[in-house]
Specification:
Elements: E1 2-6, H1 11-22, E2 26-30, H2 39-44, E3 48-51, H3 62-82, E4 88-93, H4 101-120, E5 124-129, E6 131-133, H5 144-152, E7 166-171, H6 172-184, E8 192-193, E9 199-202, H7 203-219, E10 221-222, H8 228-239, E11 253-255, E12 258-266, E13 271-277, E14 282-287, E15 293-299, E16 301-308, E17 314-320, E18 326-329, E19 333-339, E20 345-351, E21 363-364
Length: 374
């Protein structure tokens, strides 16, 4: 399989080329820097064409017709002259419903392609795309998502002129995956295609969500980034963070025992922290009514002590970082952890709730009568 990709250096094109390389499909590129007389050869050697090239914001509106329709019509004529079937994917736009120069040029291009299919049987797959978002999209051009991500991640202002305005979006990976499914499929497929899922969001909601992503570096509270639109927006937002901001500091709380730091908080699934303890140091010596925790010793050797606050039953667990065992604390059982090694101990900690200074649910309890709780 050999695929010709026009507009291969554009936003969708860059993501598509990466995917085609991953699955071992050979590619020919046609970009703004390519000469038009290269097209006959490129088309003749291709088994499939993905036509992404187009004008979005030319200085002269005549460019819409010259490129969006003119280049498409040239491709159609060359396919006719070659005399072989070469399926085409064409990225049109949902803007064709509007009476503007861009929409009219895309509609004319669609007509040329449909006539090619009617006359020759050459398969044509048309995507009327709404706004596409994802990594590698140029900011301050024609994508509000890219512009907002770029500016917010650099602490630059954004303009939300019509907060309640609804925008329709599809994710670039979903677009690319559908293209690949068409290339690979040999049977009959729907010719007028749409990308699913398609999302709706207001400009105000978009701006606020992206600000939350950025502010999470200070609050440590992560958005629910595991599914759907929020997951894809988060991945997109992170892709716009400049390299000098790939890292950010955490607050460290240090004393004679060692250090404690919170790393990540969730809205409804607790928080992640870690602490260090010097040799011989005991941490904890308390119980909780509702709070539970999971501890993982990542460096050093620890002794966990437990005592039931009702029955006085006691239990000990000895853990080395070499074992990779999780130790859970249980409501109603007082607990402590002591560094019994010769070196500093490092322990990762998850708690099922974000620490609340007004309601810490933490009550001191002397597990051993002679324990010297630091």
């Amino acid at each position: 399989m050999h695929v010709l990709v026009t507009g291969s250096d554009g936003f969708i094109g860059k993501n598509l080329i990466i995917r085609l390389n991953e699955i071992g499909i050979s590619i020919s590129h046609f970009t703004r820097d390519s000469a038009i007389d290269e097209l006959p050869y490129l088309i003749e050697k291709s088994n499939f064409i993905i036509h992404l090239a187009g004008e979005n914001r030319p200085i002269d509106e005549k460019k819409f017709d010259i490129v969006n329709f003119g280049l498409t019509d040239t491709i159609c004529k060359l396919i006719r002259s070659v005399g072989k079937t070469t399926p085409i994917i064409f990225t049109s736009s949902s803007q064709i419903k509007f009476d503007n120069a861009y929409g009219r040029s895309k509609l004319k291009a669609e007509t040329s392609l449909k006539n090619l299919e009617i006359d020759t049987g050459n398969p044509v797959f048309i995507y009327r795309l709404p706004g596409v978002f994802g990594k590698f999209c140029k900011p301050n051009y024609n994508s509000v998502v890219a512009t907002f991500c770029h500016n917010i991640s650099r602490n630059l202002p954004i303009a939300v002129n019509n907060p309640s305005s609804i925008i329709n979006l599809v994710y670039v990976d979903d677009v690319v995956n559908d293209f690949v499914s068409v290339i690979k499929y040999n049977g009959n497929l729907k010719k007028n295609r749409s990308i699913q899922p398609e999302y709706e969001i207001t400009l105000d909601e978009l701006a606020n969500q992206l600000r939350c992503f950025w502010n999470s570096r200070d609050t440590l509270i992560s958005e629910r980034v595991g599914n759907g639109l929020i997951r894809k927006l988060y991945s997109t937002f992170v892709s716009y963070i400049p390299p000098e901001k790939f890292s950010y500091p955490l607050a460290a709380h240090c004393d004679d025992r060692g250090m404690f730091a919170e790393m990540l908080k969730t809205q409804d699934s607790g928080q992640f922290s870690f602490f260090t303890a010097k040799p011989g140091v005991l941490r904890g010596g308390h119980y909780h009514h509702t709070k539970t925790e999971k501890f993982l010793v990542v460096s050093g050797n620890a002794k966990f002590q437990f005592r039931n606050i009702i029955s006085n039953e006691s239990y000990e667990i000895f853990i080395s970082s070499k074992e990779l065992k999780v130790v859970e604390t249980v409501p109603g059982w007082a607990h402590s952890i002591t560094n019994i090694g010769k070196d500093e101990m490092v322990v990762m900690l998850w708690a099922n709730e974000i620490f609340d200074t007004d309601n810490p649910d933490t009550f001191s309890y002397e597990i051993e009568a002679k324990a010297n709780i630091v």
